[in-house]
């Protein structure tokens, strides 16, 4: 992949949505929740004010409506600013 985020942005591969409930029921596509966790795939260089704290390979939590969904080579990713990342797991 040849995507390099600019400034303080990070590219995240979201975790797959849950297919079954804890009780074993299958969840239809229309009822699936958006995942709120993922893996950092690429990181920008940061800015003079913002030092990058996340790095490639980190597992992170982010807000429900954070980032912009993009598709690269048929895979879905989120690109967002580092301050939209809530925690590193």
Uncertain residue ranges: none
Helix-strand pattern, N to C?
Answer: EEEEEE
Given the C-alpha coordinates, what overall shape results? elongated
- Tally of alpha and pi helices: 0
Average pLDDT: 90
- Beta content comes to 35-45%
Could you explain the architecture of this structure?
By secondary structure, the chain is mainly beta. The chain has a domain at about 1-15 and about 45-60 and about 85-89. The protein is built from no helices and 6 strands. It has strands spanning about 10-15, 35-45, 60, 70, 75-80, 85-89. Strands 4-5-1-2-3-6 form a 6-stranded antiparallel β-sheet, with no helix packed on it.
Entry summary:
The chain is built from no helices and six strands. It is mainly beta and 89 residues long.
